[in-house]
Amino acid sequence: MAALNRPAMDCATFLKIIGDPKRLDAELQQFRKDTELFSSRRNSLLKKYPKRWVAFYHGRVRADSATLDSLLAETDRIGIPRGHIVVQFMETDLRTMIL
Length: 99
Description:
The chain is α+β, with helices and mostly antiparallel strands.
């Protein structure tokens, strides 16, 4: 609850933190598109990358690996910003949960 007691942030400070609002909006829109596209292709990706970690960026798989650490190392190597990729383990043995 301590965050609720902080004074309001001025606009200049806020813009300094988030950067260019148009750039931020474009990045968020691209991430949304990637998550939707990833979701729509999930079944085909499961067949192609079973039990592997995948990094999806700008509409396609850019890297895959057996471990999360090696996947992130590969995305770093090819210069994809970590905060902009959709990363998921392609689990083939889905569990049914009864709530």
